[in-house]
Amino acid sequence: MEVVVFFILSFVVLAIIFSNTQRDNRRSKRRIPPKFRPNPQYRKRVKRQVFDNKSATPLPLPRVLEGFARIIDGDSLIINKTQVRLYGVDAPELNHPYGQKAKWALIHMCKGQKIRAEVTEIDSYGRTVALCFTEEGRDISAEMVRQGLAIDWPKFSGGVYHKLEPKGVRKKLWLADARQHGRMHIWEQFEARQKAKLDAK
């Protein structure tokens, strides 16, 4: 009888010791700091992104300019000290046929009016490209095309002004048309003739 009681008591003691050991192991596991636990999602969250100049974007420019305009040529003007190019059109250069006429048409259109320029982009020459409107809300690019003193430039406008071009205007503004189609040798030939005339004088 005593032997049976001894074995029962020994079994109970061993069971208590085993259960306490298991409880201590569970507690010790809970105390492991998170940084030592393998957790790929956690590592992904805290991974720092390297600064990349190519993907960085500059702060946006002011989207709207308003003020009186100083005219440079048939498709360029200055508003609040910012050089602006008319969106989507191409007018002749000052020394090209109809260049002076285009400039004066733009002067008369903008004279005495505050022009609203809605910025669309910066071109390869660093000029601000904008949709420009008179105080009455007339689209200046569209008006210049209607008057036959500028032509639509589909590469930049998507062809929105093409239907406004008077018949035969591309023959009239042949140098602007040549520029749009990459025929810059025609420009070079024209300007060489102009220079020769000036040298002859």
Structure description:
- The protein is of the alpha+beta class.
- It has two domains: 2-46; 64-200, OB fold (Dihydrolipoamide Acetyltransferase, E2P).
- Helices cover 43% and strands 19% of the residues.
- It is built from eight helices and seven strands; from the N terminus they run ααββββαββαβαααα.
- It has helices at 2-30, 40-46, 99-110, 140-146, 154-157, 169-172, 174-180, 184-200, and strands spanning 64-73, 76-79, 82-86, 89-90, 114-122, 128-133, 151-152.
- A five-stranded mixed barrel has the order 1-2-3-6-5.
- A hairpin with a 2-residue loop joins β2 (76-79) and β3.
- The longest helix has 29 residues, at 2-30.
- The N and C termini lie far apart (140 Å).
Descriptors:
alpha+beta; 2 domains
What topology does this entry show?
Blueprint (H helix, E strand, L loop, with lengths): L1 H29 L9 H7 L17 E10 L2 E4 L2 E5 L2 E2 L8 H12 L3 E9 L5 E6 L6 H7 L4 E2 L1 H4 L11 H4 L1 H7 L3 H17 L1
Parallel strand pairs: 3-6
Antiparallel strand pairs: 1-2, 1-5, 2-3, 4-7, 5-6
- Sheet with the most strands, sense and barrel status: 5 strands, mixed, barrel
Task: Specify the overall morphology.
Answer: elongated
Structural class: alpha+beta
> CATH topology of the largest domain, which one?
OB fold (Dihydrolipoamide Acetyltransferase, E2P)
Averaged pLDDT: 81
Give the CATH architecture of the largest domain.
Beta Barrel
Task: Briefly summarize what is shown.
With 201 residues, the chain is α+β, with helices and mostly antiparallel strands. The chain folds into two domains: 45 residues; 137 residues, OB fold (Dihydrolipoamide Acetyltransferase, E2P).
